[in-house]
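Researcher: Structure prediction, please.
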Amino acid sequence: MKWRSIIGGAVISIIVVLTMTLMMQLQNYQLSNLDITHQVNGNKQYRIAILTHVHVPQIDSIIKRFNAMLQKANLLSYSTKFYCAKGDTSLLRNMVNDIVDSNYDLIWSIGTTSSRALKTLCKKRGSKSPILCSNVIDYMWNRWMSKNEYLKKYMSGSIGGFNWKNRLTILQFLHPTIKHVLIPYASHANDYYKVIDRLKAQLTSMDIQSTVVFIDNYDALSKMRPYLDDIDTIILARDVKLLQMLPSIVKMANLQSIPIFTADTSSIHKGAAFGIGMDEGMSGAITAQQALRLLYYGACVRDIAPIDLDDCAKQFTLNRKAVSKQGPKISDELMFIIDKGFVSYNNESML
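Model: Predicted structure follows.
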């Protein structure tokens, strides 16, 4: 019996190791699929590095739209190399150093964390490669650019804050009895706190109570449970780390019949009830246009103003199955309005 237990334990260990190895190989294969080459006859081949701190499905949508736009224009011969630090800050720094050493024609960073590491090390090492950053929190961007001539010369891209007023107005329209929301967040960055503070201030102005809880890993999800009996909505800001834990948050919300409202459009596919945000691929399309101006038309980075993503059209999305589990009850009349596309959102008006 003892030997059977030892052998059984060894077999289980081997299966676990093989499964983990297979998953890592699959993930690496998926990431390698983001490296592409596009050739236009007779044109110089440009090399583009793409850097992210973590990999989530939204990244794929952004990169695919970037490539689709460039290939549709068919003006530029280029190849891309995708660098993903998989949440490892040390690996992120090493990747930035490798990118600088490789002297790419263009460096594209997606997200605030990778862009912060990029701007710091590129400036320190005196890199002359043009840099485009996507989806950087506006507070952070403004602080970086303040009196920093190096960044003004070599860095542009797209930035975004959160227009909570219009988002929450639509939420209140859909869920008129909302009184108390739970706001989980996963980032310690000071500038991300400001995003949460913005959300809390808007909720207060609408006479809606809010509770904020910090969750930086799956074990910390238990911090949400004591509040679930007292809240009627969970609001998720655009936090990549938090979106990775969304399936677990959805399970909790379904059990308690609490709707999840997100500041992006893709989370409904993972079980959130509602989402209002920019089309995920929009920042990829914007970056493609900026890349063409830099590499094909010869513009200087300084001449390319950063695009505010909050000025771009937003989308309202709804998951009927999730709403049936989480609530709120939506009348047939209102659902008809939603289905006909009459619920719209931009920075000036709604409905």
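Model: The chain has three domains: 1-33, 36-158+281-308, 164-279+312-339.
Researcher: Thanks, that helps.
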